[in-house]
Amino acid sequence: GENVEQHPSTLSVQEGDSAVIKCTYSDSASNYFPWYKQELGKRPQLIIDIRSNVGEKKDQRIAVTLNKTAKHFSLHITETQPEDSAVYFCAASQRSYGQNFVFGPGTRLSVLP
Amino acid sequence: DTAVSQTPKYLVTQMGNDKSIKCEQNLGHDTMYWYKQDSKKFLKIMFSYNNKELIINETVPNRFSPKSPDKAHLNLHINSLELGDSAVYFCASSRPLGGSTDTQYFGPGTRLTVL
Predict the structure, then answer these.
(1) What is the signed CA dihedral for A47, A12, B36, B11, rounded to 10 degrees?
(2) Has residue A47 got a pLDDT over 90?
(3) Touching A: B residues 71-100, CB under 8 Å
(4) What pLDDT digit, counting tens, does each position of B39-53 carry?
(5) If you average pLDDT over residues B60-65, what whole number do you get?
(6) B108 contacts chain A (CB < 8 A)
(7) What's the pLDDT score for residue B1?
(8) Nearest-CB residue to A99 (from B31, B108, B109)
(9) DSSP state of B14
(10) b/e string for B26-37 if b means 16 or more Cβ within 10 A?
């Protein structure tokens, strides 16, 4: 089955700096890779996703890159703000009957003012 | 935002009791999930249903029994609750084959505390 690893487990950056979180996956059949942000006491919420036919996607300060050959994908947050502080999860999925999502263990991002 | 809703939000109970958590989605999705998030924040899938059919059943004690009366509802019943069952349980839904998006939406979570 699919296995997703995520690094680092914790990340502290100064406000205005960039943050990068990396994930690797094991199943080459996975073709959909979402990223979720979870604030304290809240539900995970999708912030950006990428499909396997795309190498990069950007939405304002957030971008995701995918390297299918190496089976890794990364989240990039630029010009970080204190409200970016949260736990971020990557996930890998196959678009199939009984779509399964396998999540990474999460990265706790702290943006210091 | 009530696309995926869960009840109750908090559940405090004694060891050995039986309890249920309910989930409903109004997004027209075909697939629903239960996840357990422990104190270390790991999100672990427990079950997945597609159109009321059980698709994914991870290694979960058989004290946990999901039930899907229709594709908009997925309930979780837990028998003989144990201390280790304390966690936040999230319901989620998504739409695979035939849908235009793979996005998975989460409910607000149910914080279960077993005393």
Answers:
(1) -100
(2) yes
(3) 90, 94, 96-97
(4) 888 999 898 888 888
(5) 92
(6) yes
(7) 53
(8) B31
(9) -
(10) eeebbbbbbbbb
Rounded distance, CA A38 to CA B85, Å?
A: 21
Contact assessment for residue A34 and residue B104, using Cβ atoms and an 8 Å cutoff: yes
Collect all residues with Cβ–Cβ distance below 8 Å to B56 and sequence separation of at least 6. Answer: A98, A100, B33, B45, B47, B48
Structure token pair of residue B47: 């079950």
**Of the candidates B27, B42, B36, which has an alpha carbon nearest to the alpha carbon of residue B94?**
B27
Residue A46 has pLDDT above 80, yes or no: yes
Q: Scanning the structure block, which residue is given the tokens 């979780």?
A: B76
CB contacts, 8 Å: A49 with chain B:
102-103
What are φ and ψ of residue A84, in 5° steps? -80, -10
Query: What sign results for the dihedral spanned by CA atoms A47, A51, A54, A55?
Result: positive
Q: What is the nearest CA distance from B114 to chain A, expressed in angstroms?
A: 18
Say whether B42 and A97 touch across the interface (CB within 8 A): no
Tell which phi-psi region holds residue A41, choosing left (phi > 0), alpha (psi between -120 and 50) or beta.
Answer: left
Q: At B71, is the pLDDT very low, low, confident or very high (cuts 50, 70, 90)?
A: confident
| CA proximity to B79, closest of B36, B39, B19, B38 | B19
